[in-house]
Each structure stands twice: as C-alpha cells, then as structure tokens.
Amino acid sequence: MNLSPESHTIKSICTNFPPTLDVPIPDTEDVIHILYKLIHISPTIMMPANIIEFEYRVKHGLVPEYLLCAIFAAGMKHIKNKRTHSDRVIEALYARRSLELIKALNPKNDLLALWACVFIIHYCRGNEDQCSFTQAMILAKSIVLTTKLHMLDAQKSDKISYQEIKEKTKFKLCTQGIKERQEFKRRIWWLYYITTISEYYLDSSISTFEDSDIKVNFPENDFVYRYGGNSAICPEITQKLNNIAENPKYPVKPQDNYSLVIKMHVFLKSLIDFVSKRWKENYFDQDQANLKLVKLIKGLGDIKFVIESKYSETIYPISSIKEHFSENFKLSENTDSIIFSYYLRHFHKDMVIYLYQSELVRDNSLKLHPGRVKSAKTICLKCATDQVEMLSWALGRNFVDTKVFMVIPFTFNAIATLINMFFIGNETISTKYTNQYTEIINVYKALSPLCDLVLIQLKVSENLLELKREANHINKPLKYLNSKMLPFSISPDFEDVDPWIVPLHGSFYNYKCCYIEIYSEMEINKYLEIPALKRTTRDAEHGKNEFESSKKYKKDEPEYTCQDTSLCDTKSRNKCDSSPKDSGMKLASILNCKSKTES
Fold this sequence. Notes:
It comes from Smittium angustum. The protein is mostly helical and 599 residues long. The protein is built from 24 helices and no strands.
C-alpha cells in the first residue's frame, strides 16, 4: 500500500540500485547529535552503547562506515527541523549504502554489522522500504546464527582469550575488557530479540527464536555500562554522569531499566503466540485456552505491579522534564527513569488491550458468556483512555519527537477501541470518546512527517472506521435484536449494541489480503446467529419498546457476577470441551475482578 509519493522514489532506488553508491560519509557531529537524540527517542536501540567510548570512536574515525551510514539513515530525520522529500531519498541511499558495505565485507561474526542491521530496520519502520527491511532482517539473522549469539552464556566464555574475542568479532576493543565485551554481546543479542518480537507483533508469520533455545543473561548495571569508562575521553555533556558511574562512594546508582523491557518482550511473545492462534482451528481446546488466558492475565498483573513499584506514580515530572528534553541535551541521572516510565506504561496498556480484544472475537461454535465480553470491553476502554491521556499530555508539551515517537507502535489498539464508540446509542458518551479519538489522531498527524508507519496507521484507522460505519448501517434495521445485544454492552447507559471491530488473530496489520475476513463478526444477526427478517414499522416500534424495557430491567439488575454461569452459553455447551461449571465460574470471576483493577 503506497501512502506517499515519496515511496515511489524509494522503491525505484531499491529496484535500480547500482553496485556502489557514491554517498559521502556522514558528518561526525551529525552522528553524535543523532546518538544523543536516540537515547531519548528510541532508548532500546541504544542499549549496547557506552556513550562515552562510542562518541570518542566516532570523533576519531574508529567506527565502520556501514554503522555510521545505518545510524544516519535511522536518525537523520530527528536532527532536522523539517523532513523534506529529498531527506527521505537521502535516508534511503544511506540505508542501501550500509547494506552494500556489509554484504561486501561478508562479516559473519561482526556484531557491529548486526547493530547496523537493527538501525536499518529502525529506519524502515519510518519508511516504505521493504527491500532494505528484508535484506537487513536476513543479514541480522545470519550473523546471529553464525555467532550462536543466542547461546552466549551457555558457552564457557570466561575461558576465551582477549585475542580470540577480537578476531571473532572483528572489533578492536580499545579500552574495553573481556567482561565489558561480554556485556556488549548480551546487549546486542537482546536488542536483536526485541527487534524481532516487535516485528512479530505486527506480523505473526515472522519466525523468532524459541525461548527454550535462548541462553543469554539479562544486561546489568545499565547506568554504569552507558556512562562509565575513561574520564579522560569523557565529553563535557556526560561528565556529571561519568563521575556518578565511576564513583564507588556514590550511594545509590540509578536503577536498571533494560532487563524489564526485555522481560516484557519475552512476555509479549507468549501473548502473541496465544492471541494469534486462539481462534484458529485445532490449536486450543477451551480448557487449554482458559488456562492460558488466566496465566497471561496474571502475568499482566505482575508486570503492572513491577512498573508501579519501580517507577513513581507521577510520570510527568514537569519541572525537570523540560531540562532533560531541552535542545541542548542536558542530561541527568533521572532521565532514563522518566523515559522508561512513560514507555513501559504505554507498552503494558497496549498488551492489556491486545489480550482482552481476543475475548471479543465471536466464534459461533464456542460462545463466551456475555459477562466476559462486557468485562473485556470495560478493560479495553479504560486502557485506551489512559493512553490518550498520556499522549495528549506529551503533545501539549511539545514532546512529540521525544516521548511520543517511541510509543507509537503501542497505541493503535487504543485507536481501534475508540472507533467502536462512534456508533453507540448514547450520544453524550459517544462524543466523549470520539473526542479522545480525535486527540490521538492529532498526535499521529503531528508525527506523520517523521514516520511512514504513522501514515499506515492513519490509513488503517480510516479503513476500520469505514468498516464499522458500514456494519452500523447494516445493523440499523435490526433494532428488534438490540435487546438481545444489551447483555454484551458495557452498561445499559452506553447502548453499545453493535459488535466491536476486533482482529480475529491479534493484529490489525494483516490487511494486505482478505481485508474484511480478518475481523470478527460485526453484523448483529450473524453475531447472534439469528436470520435477519423483513420488519414492518409496527414490528420495529415493538422492538424499540422491547429494547427500552430491557434497558430499564438491566439497570435494576445487580452488577454482573459469575457465581451461576458456565464458561460457554448453554446452547453451545455440546460444541466445546468446556471445563466443569466451577472452572467457568473461576475464570469469569477473575475477568470480572480484572475489569475493576487491571487498569
């Protein structure tokens, strides 16, 4: 799907690519500028960097050209006041130049080449450059398999000599010792892992490593690793941080962040494995699905507890944030905590929506109790509202290019959730949530010059809204069925009687083929398995009265509990391998509890 005229130019570069591109080596000061920008904008990609030594190497010509080109391709847009058409072309040229240099060198053991590939993948997320993306993914995986990087800590690495490490990686260590080198390898591996899981999230057909095959310790001492080192080569901008990192008397070093990011991506892989296959035939029976669901819900609760324990509840320290994110890149020891607090809260909210959307899929061979649907809707809507609040805060303080850019992949499920609020019966409530939808779309539009992924997300959101509008048009003559949909509504006041638009297999991005077939049923009569009938005006009026009576009755009902409900509807019990009644009660009770506490 071509969303911008520039993409045609980029694709022509890919198609008619000459063997050698004559592009100048990126300017040293520009590369250093990009490095400090990326610490704020994309902190995970900077996980392997000791910023003091890396800046020294850049200044003294000790960084391979392919890595400089890759960094420039990924970060050039962040040091420009305005991104132009020619800037996009230059980014594409530098990405291709980096790939050509890597292929020419054939660096099967070069971890810097692996890092360069990740920078190029990062660049591709902001550009429609599928050929560079594919090549970078293939080269990266080849290096990982050749070096057996995923087995790093299963090897007796402490017995490998200093000279062997230099030869195997083709990287002059300079001031780094073996211990630091091993930590660098761990961080390169986990950066690659995070990158592949992020792509797996968008496209569940991408292959990943099985967790059981990974033998790599989590990184440690993030602050000391990034800002420690030889003070003689330390630039003024990081002098304070270097003093803290190198001073053994400094009472408490800033906490680690990357290990939690990695653990959340490991959990995300389990989430994707479940959600993407949950409603496919012959993957899970109902018992297996329910047990897995309960386990994942508990995991999300554990993650939320860790985030809230690790980071302050106040994620918006206004007085200090202006200093940390000012144009002169003045840093402090609190910067990383501020960045990761924002990033991880968005990440967690998105995973919650991602999981509970799978509760809203309608499978007529195995119907979930309306109380579970209602609970899942409530949770999704609360998380979406929280994300809009965080995005609006950042937009209002002009942090679009810093804090917001890194969380864009984690916000689309919130948009999809809010789209469902356009067509509820209560106009007052609908307006509240459609205004929130407009807020998040405004954030996307502010970012669209920097990232083609945002353009894609905007296009997909328009398509979802149109599909939802068409379904609502079909459902309008079926008002006589509204009373039967009311048990699925968040509350009688909402009147959200139309089935929600949710993906069948987790991702809204698998839209390149079978577009309509990737979503759950949105037509009321098909959702309920009731044939649509031609109704007279009198019948329609009777249906409306029945709906109003049902609303009144529902308002008088006690809050939904699951003490006397099974997991499946009675009519479909014989179609599934449902657990005994107490199993259904236990799961539904957990879901109901989560609707009050999850978000």
